[in-house]
Structures
1.
Amino acid sequence: MPAPEPEILLDANGMPIETWGGKFERKFKENPFVPILAGLTTASLIVAASKLRRRDSVSLNHWLRVRVVMQGLTIVAVVGGSWWYGQMKHQKEAAAAADQERLLERAGFEARLRAAEEADRMERVEQELHSKQAATSGQSESRSGWFGGLFGSSSSKGSGSST
């Protein structure tokens, strides 16, 4: 008996509901600097709190400054990551559009090629038909000029001199 598939919960819009661990993992992959810097901010705040309990004001001020710097870097990482993620998304969309355009161009080319091959095939069939008709009626295949010699024939019929 096969193992049952895990049940996927859906929200009101039919989208799958993400667990907090899954969301953290996805966000960490998108921009790993934010959770790292947020953790460093938290660690500097905890160290500052321990310095406050010991009444070490010089060290407390140092760790509070570190916390402010870490918070600033976290905000920079959030803004920079959002911009970078937006650029990557834009590049992916542009690449997908270019691929779609190439596929459409290729399909158009193949359609024109098939049409040209069909026209060539029809031309050859028509030539064979005309050559068979000419052979059965005893006419020469070496007609020249426009429309098979009907107009502008290079033969000298009726244009001879009278002696």
2.
Amino acid sequence: MARTWKMDEVGEHNNQDSCWVVLHGAVYDGVYITSFVSKHPGGRSVLLKNAGQDASAAFDSVHPVEIIDEYLTPDQLLGKVESGHVTGRMETREAHSSQPKLESIPSPTLPPLESMLSIAEIESCAMKRLSPKAISYYVSATDDETTKASNGEIYRSVLLRPRVFIDCTRCSLETSILGNKVGLPIYVSPAAIARLAHPDGEAGIASACSDFNALQIISKNASMSPSAIVSAGPGAVFAWQLYVLKDLAATERTLAQIRKIPSIKFLVLTLDAPFPGKREADERFKMAEVAGGAPPQAWGTESALTWQKTLEWLCKHTNLPIVLKGVQTHEDAYAATLFPAVKGIIISNHGGRALDTAPPPIQVLLEIRKFCPQVFQSLDVLVDGGIKRGTDVVKALALGAKGVGIGRAALYGLSVGGEEGVKRVLKILADETMTAMRLLGVETISELGPRHINTSALTSRLFDGLSGLEEIEIKLRSKL
């Protein structure tokens, strides 16, 4: 029988040497929490600030309640808190799903949503609404942020080639991504901790996507549970982002939970951040919070993933199609075609948050077209990073992408208007995309191709070495 503790007993364990916390009426293992203090990705001060206390409200502001069952095992439970001291776990779960308690966010007067005409304008308004913590997390990128800037700037170097005397009365944005019909070629990339932006969180994004029959890739680090998110978007299409953690058992428990959600149509295995980039704005904010000095350097993602071993393991735990996120070279795009379980790739540099001066996705698309164009027939190729205009969407599609992802833009829309703000972001991009297609003389997404764009200004930026495909064939096929 679990022991019952008084809150003053729990309160004695309130420091780095002995750190206990109460979550939804349960007292969690001092050894586990204490050892985790120096590794907590949100900074140790978050744990120490709540040490010896009921941390449920702080926990719920950034985590789904279900993550407790995913990461904490029964042997890490010390017992329960004496009744009357905290709200019961089931009651708190219900409150959590309806009205989360978030840190206070300043609410300056913003112009009406319908008057915001561009993603840049929505971003500008979001900077007035988001908390310093949210800005440091969402906006930051690695080192000098060269890649983050290049992701968007490179689109300016691609010119469109409009045609005339073509009936452009009809235009459709409908397409398919991994066999799933969607109303837009624009999808929402996995964007973590959306409730830092607005209480609607990922559910608000899902509901907005539902209006457009759009794809949402649910972040592994979402602030709401996958089941709650998919319930909010009956008309949306869902995929789920997978990080393989060093704690492989925890990853397998998560995959077991995902198998129970039929609305999730494919898995997105994220590979572009096996180790954290040096995001100085985010680190600077954490340093201000962290007691006793520098932010933690621990990283919970498994860094020893390999093609054969990891994909064999993953196929034992899911029957869903697998998409590899974080492909940044033509060589890896080609290698993905050698594994039947892989049905798609996302060309992404993690929004410039991993390796600075890595190539922007448009450049990688061009290199795939140059060295191994057969990739586009073998896999669905998606891209994300730097999308701010419908013309950007059209350019990526013309180069062979099946879908174009937005991450920060969705969070900025969420911050300025919750679900309605995300709808506004999607509508702006949809309208701009449709206008660009009409002016190009294109009626459907499938008609877009290289003839609609001029990329000659980027020729000098492309990789000019050997293709390396024979080496990949020898190395990987011998193991298959």
3.
Amino acid sequence: MEDDGKVLLKVGTLEWWLLATLPPLVAAAATWLEHLILGNDKWTPNHAHYSSYSEGSIIQTANLMLNYILRPMRHESFYKKYTGKRFMKVNILVRDEF
């Protein structure tokens, strides 16, 4: 589900701890979290090769992203945008999954 990835990538622009993080690392962490949401918890050698990040190197960034999502909302417009019908209420799905 690509909308899950959109929510997770957007977190990288909203969470101030992630602003200095390299965009490919944020994208790799978003991909890793999306795989967890979809029930695929394996980060294969292909994932590591094409993203240039091992599973161990993205855990900290993914943790920051997940903490942002699970905390009480700071940006109401972000929450409302991704809980609407257009994005299939993906923000609720991500919050409920974790």
